[in-house]
Amino acid sequence: MDEFFPEPYLFEGTPFAINRIIMARLISVAVLATICILYARRAKLVPGRSQAAFEYVLDFIRKSIGYEVIGEEKAARYLPALATLFLGVFFMNITGIIPGLHIASTSLVGMPIIYALFAYVMFIASGIRTHGVGGYFKSQLMPAGVPWPIYILMTPIEFLSNFIVRPATLVIRLLANMVVGHLLLVLTFAATHALYFSVGGAGGLLGGTVTLLGGVAVVVFEILVAGLQAYVFALLAAVYLALSIEEH
């Protein structure tokens, strides 16, 4: 568990202390910002391979998350925020398999909370802008067509569901997947090292080879999980947003 709480090696003892996880986050932001800036500055009418790849990702976010969940007419306003969530979470997740970093930037709870707060503010602010303060909270806490006495029971449940459970599940789902992925990587490669260099012999060689292949499989799996969790996070944010701005 010490992997998740590394000692700082820059600015130790100050509010700006940097450890391995913070450095991984800074590198993720720098790389993503560089890619976006280069894309914006060098975009051409006939795209090259790099531009086409980046535009494919943006098109996937637009159609598979924005249009599918929110609707083509309403999605345009929210696409930059959804793209920020998808790309930000993915780049933070993928550091778990980058040599020299070896830990997902979202495997400590602070970063998932930041992304969940971003989504939380987005869908509440959008709901208020669409329906007004009173109309939004009434639609979320007091669904139409319910007998008045039932609101005594339903309103607290709706409050917990819409304003507590939604952001909490975003945090827990992302955090748990990244923590488990890191633990799997540590177990497989630590076992490989122990079997090769401590056990030795034919048994150690065979067992180490098996755990090494398992570690490689986990690396591939972690790439898929990094993308899948980014997609799920942005998709759920879009769902919560759609529920906030719908008229019914």
From TrEMBL:
<keyword id="KW-0472">Membrane</keyword>
<feature type="transmembrane region" description="Helical">
    <location>
        <begin position="21"/>
        <end position="40"/>
    </location>
</feature>
<comment type="function">
    <text>Key component of the proton channel; it plays a direct role in the translocation of protons across the membrane.</text>
</comment>
<dbReference type="Pfam" id="PF00119">
    <property type="entry name" value="ATP-synt_A"/>
</dbReference>
<feature type="transmembrane region" description="Helical">
    <location>
        <begin position="216"/>
        <end position="243"/>
    </location>
</feature>
<dbReference type="GO" id="GO:0045259">
    <property type="term" value="C:proton-transporting ATP synthase complex"/>
</dbReference>
<dbReference type="InterPro" id="IPR000568">
    <property type="entry name" value="ATP_synth_F0_asu"/>
</dbReference>
<protein>
    <recommendedName>
        <fullName>ATP synthase subunit a</fullName>
    </recommendedName>
</protein>
<keyword id="KW-1003">Cell membrane</keyword>
<keyword id="KW-0813">Transport</keyword>
<dbReference type="InterPro" id="IPR035908">
    <property type="entry name" value="F0_ATP_A_sf"/>
</dbReference>
<feature type="transmembrane region" description="Helical">
    <location>
        <begin position="108"/>
        <end position="128"/>
    </location>
</feature>
<dbReference type="GO" id="GO:0005886">
    <property type="term" value="C:plasma membrane"/>
</dbReference>
<feature type="transmembrane region" description="Helical">
    <location>
        <begin position="174"/>
        <end position="196"/>
    </location>
</feature>
<dbReference type="GO" id="GO:0016787">
    <property type="term" value="F:hydrolase activity"/>
</dbReference>
<keyword id="KW-0812">Transmembrane</keyword>
<keyword id="KW-0138">CF(0)</keyword>
<keyword id="KW-1133">Transmembrane helix</keyword>
<dbReference type="GO" id="GO:0046933">
    <property type="term" value="F:proton-transporting ATP synthase activity, rotational mechanism"/>
</dbReference>
<keyword id="KW-0378">Hydrolase</keyword>
<feature type="transmembrane region" description="Helical">
    <location>
        <begin position="148"/>
        <end position="165"/>
    </location>
</feature>
<comment type="similarity">
    <text>Belongs to the ATPase A chain family.</text>
</comment>
<feature type="transmembrane region" description="Helical">
    <location>
        <begin position="78"/>
        <end position="101"/>
    </location>
</feature>
<keyword id="KW-0375">Hydrogen ion transport</keyword>
<keyword id="KW-0406">Ion transport</keyword>
<dbReference type="InterPro" id="IPR045083">
    <property type="entry name" value="ATP_synth_F0_asu_bact/mt"/>
</dbReference>
<keyword id="KW-0066">ATP synthesis</keyword>
